Every structure is written in C-alpha cells, then in structure tokens.
C-alpha cells in the first residue's frame, strides 16, 4: 500500500509521524490543499471548505470558474466529483461522474480553465525555449 503524504508545512519528523499514523491512507484534506494550489491560477476562486466536515477519507472544495459558475466538489479515493452548485452545498441526490484528476474535472466544467491552462503551458514552453537559446549562446561564446 502506498503512503501519499506531502505536507510542506510540517517538519520532516512530523511528516514521517503523520504518514505512520495514517497507516498508508491518503489524507484527503492534504490532497485537497495540494489540488487547490495546483490550479488556483486558472480559476476565479478555489479553497477547501471550512464549513463542511473534512476528514481523512473525504474533503470538500469550493471552486468558482472563470465563467462565474460555483461548485462544491467532493474529493475521495474514488476521485473528484461535483456534489453541489453553490459553495458549501452538498446535494445527496446529485449523481455526478467521478474524475480521476482535478484537471479533467475542471476541463469538463470550464472553457476558461482550459484556456488559462493552455496559456500557462505555452508560457512555460516559451520560457524554456528562451532559456535554452540563452544557454546555447553562452556556451558558444565561451568556446570562441
């Protein structure tokens, strides 16, 4: 069984203790925080719910897309799914599809997310290209 704990705000010894306490189970609260930090740049607002009960096996994330649509997402071992159409709202009757990644879920919900993600990717590639060109020029000049 795989242990998946990566809290940046805990010391190394606390990190190891926390992973041992979990007994190999992912802490969905920590996973949710990591998801939010990964994609916050491409949505209007996104945060782990403070109103709904988050636990080791489930966490709730509120997200507002660039189009202004609000969702409450549930994160479990099964993946992510929409559970409400407002912040901190869980509709038990809603049977939304699970998504394996936050990228897949947001891609299906928001064209604005898709565009922002694509633009960020293009910027990174352009930066890499510029760095590569600068490195080549530097190496070529030093050989002369």
TrEMBL record:
Gene Ontology CC annotation, any one: cytoplasm
Gene3D superfamilies: Hypothetical protein (hspc210)
One Pfam family it belongs to: GSKIP_dom
Gene Ontology biological process terms, A to Z: regulation of canonical Wnt signaling pathway
One of the record's GO molecular function terms: kinase regulator activity
Top-level taxon of origin: Eukaryota
Family: Belongs to the GSKIP family.
Protein name: GSKIP domain-containing protein
Organism this protein belongs to: Electrophorus electricus (Electric eel)
Lineage, broadest ranks: Eukaryota, Metazoa, Chordata, Craniata, Vertebrata
Gene it is expressed from: GSKIP
